Structures are given as C-alpha cells and as structure tokens.
Amino acid sequence: MWRFVSGVSNPNKRKQPEDDKREKDRQYDRSKRQRSYQKSWESTHSWLYHDGTKNAMFCSVCKLHDESGTGSFIVGCANFRLETILKHEASENHKKFFAAEKAKSAAPGSTPASRIIENLNKTVFDRLTCMFRTCHALAKKGRPFTDFVWMCGLDEKKGVNVGSTYRNDKQAQVFVGSIAAVERGHFSSQLRAAPYISLMSDGSTDSAVVEEEIVYARFAKNGVIKSNFISLQPVERADAKGIEGALDKAMLSVGFESKDQWLQKLVDLAAMARR
Hints:
Helix content: 40-55%
Shape: extended
Number of helices: 12
Distance between the termini: 105 Å
Number of strands: 6
Radius of gyration: 33 Å
Order of helices and strands: HHEEHHHHHHHHEEEHHE
C-alpha cells in the first residue's frame, strides 16, 4: 500500500533471525560441510549398505529386484543425507520390492497371499481337489478331455459334491496343463541336481513331414533309476549337428543355463540312427 502514500518510501522487510540462520546453514552445507556415511543408519534401514571402494550407499533390495538398473540407490548414491534415504524408502518401487523380499523370507501362513489361500472356502477346495484327481487319471490313461464331463456326472451320482462350475473339456485341459507344469518343475529340479545324466533320443516325422527329435533323460535319485521324457524338438537337418542342436535345446528347456553345464554331467548318449 506504500505506493499510494506520497512522500513515504517502501520500508525494507527485515529478516527474522531464524531466516538468517537457515540461510547461513544452507550456505555452509553447500560450500564447506563434508558429509559422510553414518553406520548407524543401517540399524533403522536394514536394506541400506555402504560400499567403501565407491564411497556410495546402495539399496540391497532394489539392486536385487529392479531390472532397470538406473536408480540412484542401484548405481550408488553419494548424497549422504538422512532425507535422501527416507525419500528412497518412501518411493513406490522400493516399497514394492521390499514387500516382495519380505514375503520370500516370511514364515508359511504369515503373508496376506498365504492367508487368502488358507481361508479359501473349504467346499470349493474339496471340489477342485476331486476334479484335479479326475484330470490326472485322464492324463495317465490317455483318455480324451471330453470324458471329464461324464466322469464329473458319475462322481455326482456317487454322492461326491463336484459343483456345477469347471465341468467342461476346456477346463479339463487347463487342469491337466497345470498338473504337467508342476510335475515338470519337480523333474527339472531333480535332473539339474543329478551328478550324472544319460540321454536317449530318437527321430520322428510329424504329419507335416517335419523332422523332430524326441529326447529322454535317465538318472538316479536316492538309488532309484528314473527315466523321463524331456521334450520333442524340431531338427533343422537330420545329421549329427542338427541332432546335437536339438539335444541342447531340450536340455535348456529344463533349466540348464548352458551347453557346457549339462555336458559336464553327461556320461552316456544313445541316439537311434535314421534310415
């Protein structure tokens, strides 16, 4: 309002002592203060650690789960301030990765997901158990998925409560696929853990006259010999190099990381000759 009063100049607003102190602190912080990593921060932030060679702090959780590799706490943060740590800890990505890591080490039944599964309606669980066993029998005996419909009807006539949902051949195919995925996972882990492996393969030709190689693995577990189907792989050419490539693809499909890894365990190979 001073501009409307003639003969009076606008008085300068005096800075409060608190404002002066804050400004001095900021100047000192920018120009002279040398901040360093405080080991005590790790007691309240378990994910935090310091790399002395790089003189930077990192987030162990984000380095493990974040595939982008671009965050400051992934490449190394040298801004040694508590505010910086708290800001990272409050970020959405960190909270997501921290929750995932916590769930991995949590006791069974203590995570929200496991509690939901445990609280699944018992009636529904029992129905699904019965249906999965029926589908397992279909797969073992090589029966068509359409048999699932009348087998559910037969169970119902016997007094078994199978409900009215999922009773179709398409769902039976889904159930069998889920069972196969679990069983294949068990087999793959056993095969990778075996000290020695023997492979057997033979050629086949499908209806489209495409050369394929069927691959089996033979290994021992607790003194018991196991022979399992691995996969059916297409062969570019029906020669030694083509068969070798098909065997490598088959072994990689069960979790081996490289050709050298499974070759170190290979003690025998039986490949049927093509005519």
